[in-house]
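User: Fold this one for me? It's Melanocyte-stimulating hormone receptor.
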Amino acid sequence: MTDNTTHLNFMMHQHMDLSSMDIDDNNTINNTTGEQNSNGCSIDIPQGLFLTLGLISLVENILVVLAIIKNRNLHSPMYYFICCLAVSDMLVSIANVVETIVLLLNDNLLLEAPEILRNLDNVIDIMNCSSVMSSLSFLCTIAADRYITIFYALRYHSIMTTRRAVALIVLVWLTSITSSTLFIVYHSHKAVIICLVAFFCIALVFNAVLYLHMFILAHVHSRRIMAVHKSRRQATSMKGAITLTILLGVFILCWGPFFLHLILVLACPTNPTCKCFFSHFHLYLILIICNSLIDPLIYAYRSQELRKTLKELVFCSCFPIRCDSILECLFPCKFT
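Assistant: Here's what I get for Melanocyte-stimulating hormone receptor.
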């Protein structure tokens, strides 16, 4: 059997490397994990916390997706992209929940199937990597959408058509899944880490440039639009840009430590200070899950229409007697 202990030295679930379960004779352990535990810097976080946060995040993002599907007023390119961002967060939640459950079963000797664990490990890696790739891509897509809305307001509907939005969504998902699969297949190459870090930096620079241009020139641009209804449109567009700025800020705070971890893996893998930083990987994973948990709250807080629809969904779930069925709750127009 091939030694797979280095598989996840840099990937999302280093805290629970499934590959380390299927080493020959169970005599070999993950070197990185061993070093982390031996240096005295590691922090033990109960698996129940990962499972709880993952489930809450999963439910929140499912509600966001259902709300966007239900409310026709939210059927616009920006909300399509936000819906995809919620799906990206769901990938992290699903991967975390599945992996935690598998580990709990394995710890209690209820699951002993090395081959299945190894394959599941690969699938979870791809899901996690696809999540970060698609999340960054959709943040860039939403930023470009807001930029067009602000500076090309009169041509927005001809530029960002539904067909083009769907084409962008398909392109982003295909690219994210394909690149993530390649990253996992060639996980042992440093080029994979370099590509991930480079993509993260490029996405941040792209968003920063658009935001800088939007917030510096938006005031000047708004003065040129004198009609009242267009001024309101401008204000709405700026509100969307501010919402996206909050989302990007939360993304950087939650994912930043993980990408710093990747950089340090390349720069100083044997340095004692870096090793101590590596040992806090549990915390970085908690932050990643928290990003998936916080995003839906931002959507709801910043969008009154989405917040109203979410309340309707939750009310129907909590008081089903008021709704004849879940389908009626989600698609009332079909029952009238």
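One thing worth pointing out: The chain has one domain: 45-335.
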